[in-house]
Write a sequence for this structure.
């Protein structure tokens, strides 16, 4: 089984397409859902959280326009599936997760797949990860009501942030924020539905 290109027409970045086809999604999902590995839909990963749908993971990754030299911050490690895309396509990945058992499982899977450029932090993503800032790219996979100031300030000049913003019980908007000469360029991508970014 494999991903079908005609179903993923919005993936035009060859490196992202290659990552999608190289990362074994089955390793990031629970045993009971293995038969759904190639279903382009979100699946439960326990603790009320979900692994996002692959076409969205790939598209959000593409929006970051990674070339291989970047330092990336990710909020919401979850299963680690999105983290694997970032680790393949950028230089260093700093990923933050609030729920310890999820972090431990993601770490184990990502290590077993050979990724050695991922740094893990347990805690709330609202404050970002100041020690390693600035970041060329920031990927947020849980939805805050508004963009946390720390994430804006830790974004490098020319850096891109992809983030869903909105209420926890409704539709959120996916944004790409670009820092250009200190100012922020905001692009609305499309409505999405993510789990809320929990206030630590
Ligand atoms: N990108 C993940 C999906 C993440 S689901 C994947 O590919 O599997 C969203 C994750 O964000 C959950 O694991 C949740 O625990 C985490 N999360 C929620 N609020 C958070 C916060 N304030 N800081 C860090 N992680 C948070």
């Amino acid at each position: 089984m494999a991903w079908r290109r005609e179903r993923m027409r919005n993936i035009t970045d060859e490196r992202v397409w290659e990552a999608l086809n190289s990362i074994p999604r089955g390793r990031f999902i629970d045993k009971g859902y293995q038969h759904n590995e190639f279903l382009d839909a979100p699946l439960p990963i326990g603790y009320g959280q979900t692994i996002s749908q692959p076409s969205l993971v790939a598209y959000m990754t593409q929006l970051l326009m990674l070339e291989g030299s970047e330092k990336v911050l990710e909020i919401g490690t979850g299963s680690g599936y999105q983290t694997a895309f970032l680790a393949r396509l950028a230089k260093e990945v700093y990923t933050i997760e609030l729920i310890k058992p999820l972090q431990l499982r993601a770490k184990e899977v990502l290590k077993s797949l050979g990724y050695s450029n991922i740094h893990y932090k347990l805690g709330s993503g609202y404050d970002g990860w100041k020690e390693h800032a600035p970041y060329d790219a920031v990927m947020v996979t849980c939805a805050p009501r508004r963009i946390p100031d720390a994430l804006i300030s830790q974004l490098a000049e020319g850096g891109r942030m992809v983030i869903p913003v909105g209420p926890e019980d409704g539709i959120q908007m996916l944004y790409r924020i670009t820092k250009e000469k200190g100012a922020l360029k905001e692009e609305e991508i499309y409505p999405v539905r993510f789990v809320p970014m929990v206030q630590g």
About this structure: Residues 3 and 23 are 11 Å apart (CA to CA).
